Structures are given as structure tokens and as C-alpha cells.
Amino acid sequence: MRNRMGRVLAPVVGLSSVACLFAVPVQAATFTVKSTTDATETPLQAQWCEQDLQDWRQRRDVVDYQIADIDARLKDSNLTEADRKALEDQNRKLKQERNGIDEWIKWIFERLIHGVCDV
């Protein structure tokens, strides 16, 4: 029974982690974490922040590619009005996502620059 429960909970925990990843940056920055780290842990934590920064930049590249693809498709004069509307809606959502990603990148970068990447 315990093995079955673990198999059921693992995807739920994974989905929860992904949902937290895409939370609004302002919300993530509204609480303060008390650091209990010593000087030997700081380089590792900076590496984690640098990895997060790289991950967000890669995500931004993917979203930029998707936006460019939609922009190119919107230039097609043979698009139906419904298809055009759907593409424009998708493009708008991707641009909003891009803005959120930019905020995360800015937030992580500022933490790296100011040496407070110890959470």
C-alpha cells in the first residue's frame, strides 16, 4: 500500500514544484528567509542562483522563439479570422509570460550582484 501511495504522490509533488517555479516574482520576494549558512556554503548557493539564472534565460529563449514563430504566422494573408484571433491571444499570453520571466531574471541577477543569493 505504501508503494502505491508513493507513486500517486510523486506526480502531485512534481506538479506542485513546477507551479511554484512559475509563481510571480514579487510574491517570492515578499518574505525574508533567515540564513543559517556559513562561509563554506555561500559558493554553492551562488552556483544554485547562477543555475536558476541560466534556466530562466533558457526559458526566455524558448518563449522568444514561440513569439517570433507566431509573429511570422500572423503575416500569412490566408489566415481565417478565428485563427488570427487565436494566434493573437496566444501571442499576448506569451508576451505576458516573457515579462514575468524578465522579472525573475532581474530579481535573481540583482541577488547575485549584491551577494545575497543565500536562500
Describe this structure in words.
- With 119 residues, the chain is mainly α.
- It has one domain (25-113).
- The chain has 4 helices and no strands.
- It is rod-shaped and about 55 Å long.
- The model is unreliable at 1-38 (pLDDT under 50).
Could you give the topology of this structure?
Elements: H1 2-21, H2 25-28, H3 42-74, H4 81-113
Keywords:
signal; disordered N terminus; single chain; Secreted protein
Distance, first to last CA:
36 Å
Cα shape: rod-shaped
Number of helices: 4
Q: Tell me the Rg in angstroms.
A: 20 Å
Order of SSEs, N→C?
A: HHHH
What's the number of structural domains?
A: 1
- Spans of at least 5 consecutive residues whose pLDDT stays below 50 are 1-38
- Total DSSP E strands: 0
Structural class: mainly alpha
What percent of residues adopt helix (DSSP H or I)?
Answer: over 70%
The fraction of residues assigned to DSSP E strands is: under 5%
* Average pLDDT over all residues: 75
Instruction: Report the major sheet.
Output: none
